[in-house]
Amino acid sequence: MLDPESIDNYQSSQALLVDNMEASIEASIDSSIDSYESDVKDSVLEDMFSNIEASIDTVSRLCTCWAIEAKVLKLVFSLFMTKNRYQELQELLESERETLLQDGP
Questions:
Q1: Domain hosting residue 83, numbered range
Q2: How far is it between the farthest Cα atoms of the chain?
Protein backbone atom coordinates (compact mmCIF):
# COMPACT_ATOMS: atom_id res chain seq x y z
CA MET A 1 0.00 0.00 0.00
CA LEU A 2 1.19 3.47 -0.92
CA ASP A 3 1.75 6.02 1.73
CA PRO A 4 -0.01 9.40 1.49
CA GLU A 5 3.23 11.25 0.77
CA SER A 6 3.92 9.07 -2.30
CA ILE A 7 0.39 9.64 -3.54
CA ASP A 8 0.79 13.41 -3.06
CA ASN A 9 4.13 13.35 -4.90
CA TYR A 10 2.59 11.33 -7.73
CA GLN A 11 -0.38 13.68 -8.00
CA SER A 12 1.92 16.71 -7.91
CA SER A 13 4.11 15.28 -10.65
CA GLN A 14 1.04 14.46 -12.75
CA ALA A 15 -0.34 17.96 -12.24
CA LEU A 16 3.04 19.42 -13.19
CA LEU A 17 3.15 17.20 -16.28
CA VAL A 18 -0.35 18.32 -17.31
CA ASP A 19 0.57 21.98 -16.73
CA ASN A 20 3.71 21.58 -18.85
CA MET A 21 1.71 19.88 -21.62
CA GLU A 22 -0.90 22.64 -21.55
CA ALA A 23 1.80 25.31 -21.69
CA SER A 24 3.50 23.52 -24.58
CA ILE A 25 0.22 23.18 -26.49
CA GLU A 26 -0.64 26.84 -25.85
CA ALA A 27 2.81 27.93 -27.02
CA SER A 28 2.46 25.80 -30.15
CA ILE A 29 -0.99 27.23 -30.89
CA ASP A 30 0.22 30.79 -30.24
CA SER A 31 3.17 30.21 -32.55
CA SER A 32 0.88 28.85 -35.27
CA ILE A 33 -1.51 31.78 -34.88
CA ASP A 34 1.36 34.29 -34.97
CA SER A 35 2.73 32.62 -38.10
CA TYR A 36 -0.70 32.64 -39.75
CA GLU A 37 -1.29 36.29 -38.79
CA SER A 38 2.13 37.21 -40.16
CA ASP A 39 1.39 35.40 -43.43
CA VAL A 40 -2.00 37.11 -43.71
CA LYS A 41 -0.47 40.53 -42.99
CA ASP A 42 2.25 39.95 -45.59
CA SER A 43 -0.35 38.87 -48.15
CA VAL A 44 -2.56 41.89 -47.44
CA LEU A 45 0.42 44.25 -47.70
CA GLU A 46 1.51 42.70 -51.00
CA ASP A 47 -2.02 43.09 -52.40
CA MET A 48 -2.23 46.66 -51.16
CA PHE A 49 1.10 47.68 -52.71
CA SER A 50 0.15 45.91 -55.95
CA ASN A 51 -3.13 47.85 -56.07
CA ILE A 52 -1.32 51.13 -55.37
CA GLU A 53 1.14 50.36 -58.17
CA ALA A 54 -1.75 49.59 -60.54
CA SER A 55 -3.49 52.83 -59.56
CA ILE A 56 -0.37 54.89 -60.17
CA ASP A 57 0.09 53.24 -63.57
CA THR A 58 -3.55 53.88 -64.46
CA VAL A 59 -3.32 57.56 -63.52
CA SER A 60 -0.12 57.89 -65.54
CA ARG A 61 -1.76 56.34 -68.61
CA LEU A 62 -4.83 58.54 -68.16
CA CYS A 63 -2.66 61.68 -68.07
CA THR A 64 -0.85 60.51 -71.21
CA CYS A 65 -4.21 60.03 -72.95
CA TRP A 66 -5.36 63.50 -71.90
CA ALA A 67 -2.20 65.03 -73.32
CA ILE A 68 -2.69 63.17 -76.61
CA GLU A 69 -6.38 64.13 -76.65
CA ALA A 70 -5.46 67.80 -76.23
CA LYS A 71 -3.17 67.58 -79.27
CA VAL A 72 -5.90 65.77 -81.24
CA LEU A 73 -8.47 68.44 -80.40
CA LYS A 74 -6.05 71.20 -81.35
CA LEU A 75 -5.62 69.59 -84.77
CA VAL A 76 -9.32 68.85 -85.25
CA PHE A 77 -10.37 72.42 -84.52
CA SER A 78 -7.61 74.09 -86.51
CA LEU A 79 -8.76 76.28 -89.37
CA PHE A 80 -6.79 74.48 -92.05
CA MET A 81 -6.22 70.77 -92.49
CA THR A 82 -3.27 69.76 -94.60
CA LYS A 83 -2.11 66.32 -95.60
CA ASN A 84 0.61 66.52 -92.91
CA ARG A 85 -1.95 67.42 -90.25
CA TYR A 86 -4.15 64.48 -91.25
CA GLN A 87 -1.10 62.23 -90.94
CA GLU A 88 -0.25 63.72 -87.53
CA LEU A 89 -3.88 63.28 -86.43
CA GLN A 90 -3.84 59.63 -87.48
CA GLU A 91 -0.57 59.02 -85.59
CA LEU A 92 -1.92 60.70 -82.46
CA LEU A 93 -5.13 58.66 -82.55
CA GLU A 94 -3.14 55.44 -82.97
CA SER A 95 -0.91 56.45 -80.06
CA GLU A 96 -3.95 57.15 -77.90
CA ARG A 97 -5.52 53.81 -78.81
CA GLU A 98 -2.31 51.94 -77.93
CA THR A 99 -2.06 53.77 -74.62
CA LEU A 100 -5.64 52.91 -73.73
CA LEU A 101 -5.18 49.25 -74.65
CA GLN A 102 -1.95 48.72 -72.69
CA ASP A 103 -2.05 45.96 -70.11
CA GLY A 104 -1.69 46.94 -66.48
CA PRO A 105 1.29 46.00 -64.31
A1: 4-101
A2: 119
